[in-house]
């Protein structure tokens, strides 16, 4: 575990942007948000966090129970090892979805109450079934593959398993925009007009090949707004929620596009794959050691629950460390957005509006921002824009790349 954590820390230090982030200005959130807006976000987001953490705890408890009762609850021990492992891994995935279903339904019900959800319960169930089927398929394939590698390399299986996980992750990053994402949403190329012209103008100013820019029909499920970069190589694309395009003015959308172009310019999707490559070997070795400590059934389907439990235990602290890398990357993207758009007022207006629209916790506890946050908190992002408006500078000239 110590080796895996050290590898994650090394990955963060190697891949974090070399530029020093400008110091955000001190801001009073009540100058930008009313007390009612702050309390509304707090009342919604903090119980949602508790539901999410209790859901993760229930997942962990399920795996612990399966380690103790694997032959009673899982069918794979009756079958040939590889096929049985694939069946058990798929069963574990489905069992996890079923056990945590009340938590998911409760979180959704609370989101409906604050106006975040537009999708019907029937549509939600259909999406859940599709996601569960995909997860069970991937889990089954991974479980069978790991047991096959265990049987081929009883002592050193963790090394090819690590390589396989990185390869599969990279392949998924490249193919999911064209194979998996369309299962859940419709994507339309941004039509000719002012918005598309703005994207191309900003991309030219940033010196990047943006690939394609798509609008996604997020409004069929939610009122929340967002944007993201996905894909690798020929599948690279910028995706803008239709709720963003419909509810924000031109300057606000430009700062969002500039932020996403920063991710393209600095190859941040590839950066996440590189982090996985750095961590994979030590993490797989830690999983091997924990699996052996939890049970001595290597090479059979009976090893699957212990293997899954070990993977969850190891991935927990690595994920917390990876959030630091994510926050540093997002800070650089914010700084680049301010420099490229030159519109700190629009940046502040966007941060204010999206925090309210997405019912975010505007002033979260420090431990939440420091451990669980993948993005800087709203206070910091507004402070960065205020600092830029005062100095006219958000990003040092030197840039990092991988």
Please explain how this structure is put together.
The chain is 69% helix and 4% strand. With 402 residues, the protein is mainly alpha-helical. The protein has one domain. It has a four-stranded mixed sheet. A hairpin with a 6-residue loop joins strand 3 and strand 4. The two termini are 27 Å apart.
Tell me the fraction of residues in β-strands, as a range. Answer: under 5%
Query: Low-confidence parts, pLDDT < 50 over ≥5 residues?
Result: 395-402
Shape: globular
Helical percentage: 55-70%
Mean pLDDT: 92
Number of strands: 4
End-to-end span in angstroms?
27 Å
Please compute the radius of gyration using only Cα atoms.
22 Å
Q: Helical segment tally?
A: 16
How many structural domains can be distinguished in the coordinates? Answer: 1
The secondary-structure element order is: HHHHHHHHEHEEEHHHHHHH
Q: Characterize the main sheet.
A: 4 strands, mixed
Coarse structural class: mainly alpha
Strand order of the largest sheet: 1-2-4-3
